[in-house]
């Protein structure tokens, strides 16, 4: 579908029908409920769900003249809607429900059930339709939110089992209890108080007394780090320590330079002096972070005059040089203050790369001087008649263009501030410009610019940054349902646009004094059918005999982009597809590492190792072929994946269920070995690894690091972001920094399993009793996920346990919700009936309620 036709079609949809007088109906009195009726409906990969509409007002809901819009991640099946209405997709994840000729309206006090079928399956509440709003026909530009909306929980197997052979039921307290039994208490003397785990640690007997009077003495190379440390200690002590060159006999903190590997350091805490030694500012900074994790967690709750730090000797260096966290702020936006807070969190745990996903189908989040449409149009979402004043609602962002999750961007000044903040914390910020797919925000914005300048008679200027061919009649649907989200790589204006944006990025980094080594140019999920009917493509193919099919445009595009980037001193970085070539084997499609780009210094994020999809070894194949690889595996590293199968546990689950243990037990050089579940959460059939390519020693040299990722389709606001990333980020930090643990290299399976249980127990103790209590207050405090307790009945009493120790378990026996005043669990509970349990952190914040019945 062409972009011109799409815009015209949207306008026709809004305006073509005869005008109907505005009904005297208040949308607040429309109650809407949605429920999953049945997965595997009619024995097929489809499900049946239902809306129930109830008119709670005193005025009838009209039989015509209205449209209900909503976002939905599944695709309804045409012709299956009941109740006299119809559901259809507009574009992306935006659908509309409209009355048909036989719709009789909804009288006051009455209800109407509307069922419809859709492809695939649904499990949790984040699968549900979201962002519902009404539009009356006489006011087509106004969206009225439906605020009385409830998602009914699934309670029966037909609602939560995805297919007939789905063996994984909803998680229960009893299941959690069995899982939590892997943990065992770790004696205090065996705990390492530095996190992530250092190369070597030795404790002492004495204590260093930290007071506001303790000065910081730093070699000239570490003045910036000394200032940073003084600021951190001011938070703890209520007063900023002095920076001093004195070498007298008083207690002091010394930052000294000595020839060492770039990120290595030593931390030596004695009763009279703390000394951090490193060969670089990076190493000194990481030594400071280790000192901070050595400080008791309670110290972050309020300033104190005295802090006691145990004697310690640490020698340390990271395993990987690229320790990354990826954040998508496009699907749903995060404000600058949350990004700064995220950088503080990353710095504490020695992560050194922020992969900043700034452009997408659903949002362009960075101001680019000279191209105001990118943020005026592409950074705003709301109900739109023409589709050209801003982007349509997505992922439940609703009709209000001023909504905080759908709309928002970073000004140039904001971004420079973020860069300076990151640089001070030794974090490299890699901006991502998603191309050529996942680019709808940019495509739409540049179309608007094109039309505006065309009307002004400035035709040459209008076409300068155009990203789509106005005459392109190609038809396609992206994975997310978009029909107009791919940049046309045959147009010279595409490369003018990319160079313009890249140049502006280079200028921002230069002004911020921040390093810019690469720009991530995307490369993810370009759908079949794209470019097939583009006159611009046909013209290019006539001029370039090497381009025989649209597949060849891929190599043409990334060849040109990589040369442009290299001319600016940047190496090429993208998703795994930029390193792949489509070919055939015995007449069947085959996808292989592209030999053309191996020697070009390409670096790729490899996400697709979904266990059971067939590409489990893709990361290893690319590394063995010579590409620089960042392990970004969906099986273990996608923080937006739901923790487990539960209706009230948010997140997607198409690639895996991912809890903190999935990150902890990831073995970077042999993730086949410790894989336990397939992508559906079932016990893994290890035959899927037969014939798969393992990582060679040469391939290991090309694995530059690992990356945790948070895509934001299901993340609405900073609280949900923090819930999703913590405590998972602690598993990422451990695996990115620490050396391979003994269990990862042990060849005997039984011995490896025993070693893993010990290692997990030590890690869980550190996370639960030290790091999460620290994060209750650090950087203002984080709204991390509090794991639900496990519970089971043993000998007529309810026994409880935890995934992570350190939380206070409270319970009730009278049916009420546990509060901070409820009894504390200390021994199995003898009371009969429903026992409700919650875990509380040091600030009195609780996780979800678990209920177990004691008959």
Automatic annotation (TrEMBL):
SMART domains: CHB_HEX. It comes from the Bacteria. The active site is at 525 (proton donor). GO terms for cellular component: membrane. Its EC number is 3.2.1.52. It is an enzyme of class 3 (hydrolase). Residues 28-175 form the Chitobiase/beta-hexosaminidases N-terminal domain. CDD domains: E_set_Chitobiase_C. Transmembrane segments: none annotated. Residues 1-21 form the signal peptide. Keywords: Glycosidase, Hydrolase, Signal. It holds the Pfam family CHB_HEX_C. GO terms for biological process: carbohydrate metabolic process; glycosaminoglycan metabolic process. It catalyses: Hydrolysis of terminal non-reducing N-acetyl-D-hexosamine residues in N-acetyl-beta-D-hexosaminides. One of its GO terms (molecular function) is beta-N-acetylhexosaminidase activity. InterPro entries: Beta_hexosaminidase_sua/sub, CBM2/CBM3_carb-bd_dom_sf, CBM2_carb-bd_dom_sf, CHB/HEX_N_dom, CHB_C_dom, GH, Glyco_hydro_20_cat, Hex-like_dom2. Belongs to the glycosyl hydrolase 20 family. This is beta-N-acetylhexosaminidase. It comes from Dawidia cretensis. The lineage of its organism: Bacteria, Pseudomonadati, Bacteroidota, Cytophagia, Cytophagales.
């Amino acid at each position: 579908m062409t972009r011109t036709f799409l815009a015209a079609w949207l306008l026709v949809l809004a305006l073509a029908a005869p005008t109907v007088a505005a009904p005297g109906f208040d949308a607040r009195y429309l109650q809407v409920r949605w429920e999953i009726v049945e997965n595997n409906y009619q024995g097929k990969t489809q499900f049946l769900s239902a809306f129930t509409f109830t008119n709670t007002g005193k005025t009838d809901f009209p039989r015509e003249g209205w449209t209900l819009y909503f976002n939905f991640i599944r695709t309804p099946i045409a012709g299956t809607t009941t109740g006299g209405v119809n559901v259809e997709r507009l574009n992306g994840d935006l659908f509309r429900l409209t009355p048909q000729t036989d719709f009789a309206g909804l009288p006051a006090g009455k209800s109407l059930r509307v069922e419809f079928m859709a492809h695939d399956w649904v499990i949790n509440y984040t699968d549900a339709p979201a962002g519902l709003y009404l539009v009356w026909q006489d006011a087509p530009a106004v969206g009225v939110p439906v605020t009385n909306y409830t998602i009914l929980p699934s309670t029966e197997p037909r609602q939560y089992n995805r297919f007939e052979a789905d063996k994984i039921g909803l998680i229960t307290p009893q299941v959690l209890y069995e899982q939590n039994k892997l943990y065992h208490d770790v004696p205090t003397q065996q705990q390492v108080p530095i996190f992530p785990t250092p190369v070597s640690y030795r404790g002492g007997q004495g204590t260093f007394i930290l007071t506001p009077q303790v000065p910081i003495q730093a070699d000239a190379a570490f003045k910036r780090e000394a200032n940073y440390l003084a600021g951190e200690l001011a938070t703890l002590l209520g007063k900023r320590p002095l920076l001093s060159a004195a070498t007298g006999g008083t207690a002091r903190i010394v930052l000294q330079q000595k020839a060492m590997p770039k990120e290595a350091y030593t931390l030596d805490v004695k009763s009279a002096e703390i000394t951090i030694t490193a060969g670089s500012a990076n190493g000194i900074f990481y030594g400071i972070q280790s000192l901070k994790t050595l400080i008791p967690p309670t110290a972050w709750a309020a300033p104190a005059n005295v802090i006691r730090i145990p004697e310690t000797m640490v020698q340390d260096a990271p395993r990987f040089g690229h320790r990354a966290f990826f954040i998508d702020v496009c699907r749903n936006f995060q404000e600058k203050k949350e990004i700064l807070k995220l950088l503080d969190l990353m710095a504490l745990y020695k992560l050194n790369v922020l992969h900043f996903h700034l452009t997408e189908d659903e949002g362009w989040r960075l101001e680019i001087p000279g191209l105001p449409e990118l943020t005026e149009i592409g950074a705003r979402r709301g109900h739109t008649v023409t589709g050209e004043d801003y982007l349509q609602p997505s992922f439940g962002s609703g009709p209000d263009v001023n909504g905080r999750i759908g709309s928002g961007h970073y000004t140039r000044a904001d971004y420079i501030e973020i860069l300076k903040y990151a640089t001070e914390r030794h974090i490299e910020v890699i901006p991502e410009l998603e191309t050529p797919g996942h680019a709808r925000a940019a495509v739409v914005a540049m179309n608007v610019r094109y039309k505006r300048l065309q009307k002004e008679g400035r035709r040459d200027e209008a076409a300068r940054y155009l990203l789509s061919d106005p005459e392109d009649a190609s038809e396609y649907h992206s994975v997310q349902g978009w029909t107009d989200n791919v940049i046309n790589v045959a147009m010279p204006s595409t490369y003018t646009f990319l160079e313009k944006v890249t140049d502006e990025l280079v200028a921002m980094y230069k002004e911020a004094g921040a390093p810019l080594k690469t720009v991530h140019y995307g490369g993810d999920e370009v759908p079949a059918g794209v470019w097939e009917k583009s006159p611009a493509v046909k013209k290019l193919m006539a001029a370039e005999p090497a381009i025989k099919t649209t597949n060849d445009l891929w190599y043409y595009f990334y060849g040109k982009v990589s040369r442009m980037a290299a001319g600016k001193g940047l190496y090429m970085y993208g998703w795994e597809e930029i390193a792949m070539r489509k070919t055939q084997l015995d007449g069947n499609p085959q996808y292989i590492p592209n030999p053309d780009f191996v020697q070009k210094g390409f670096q790729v994020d490899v996400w697709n190792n979904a266990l059971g999809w067939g590409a489990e070894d893709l990361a290893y194949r690319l590394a063995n072929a010579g590409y620089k690889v960042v392990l970004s595996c969906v099986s273990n590293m996608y923080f937006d994946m739901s923790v487990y199968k539960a209706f009230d546990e948010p997140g997607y689950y198409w690639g895996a269920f991912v809890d903190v243990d999935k990150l902890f037990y990831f073995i970077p050089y042999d993730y086949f070995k410790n894989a336990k579940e397939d992508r559906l959460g079932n016990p893994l059939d290890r035959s899927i690894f037969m014939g798969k390519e393992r990582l060679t020693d040469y391939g290991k040299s090309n694995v530059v690091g690992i990356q945790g990722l948070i895509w934001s389709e299901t993340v609405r606001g900073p609280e949900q972001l923090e819930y999703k990333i913590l405590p998972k980020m602690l598993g990422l930090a451990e695996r990115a920094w620490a050396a391979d643990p003994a269990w990862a290299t042990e060849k005997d399976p039984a011995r490896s399993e025993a070693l893993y249980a010990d290692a997990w127990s030590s890690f869980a103790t550190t996370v639960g009793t030290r790091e999460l209590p620290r994060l209750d207050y650090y950087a203002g405090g984080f709204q991390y996920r509090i794991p639900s307790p496990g519970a089971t009945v043993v000998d007529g009493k309810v026994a409880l346990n935890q995934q992570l120790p350190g939380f206070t378990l409270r319970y009730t026996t009278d049916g009420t919700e546990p509060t901070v005043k409820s009894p504390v669990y200390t021994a199995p509970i003898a009371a009969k009936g429903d026992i409700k349990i919650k875990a509380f952190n040091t600030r009195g914040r609780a996780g979800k309620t678990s209920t177990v019945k004691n008959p």
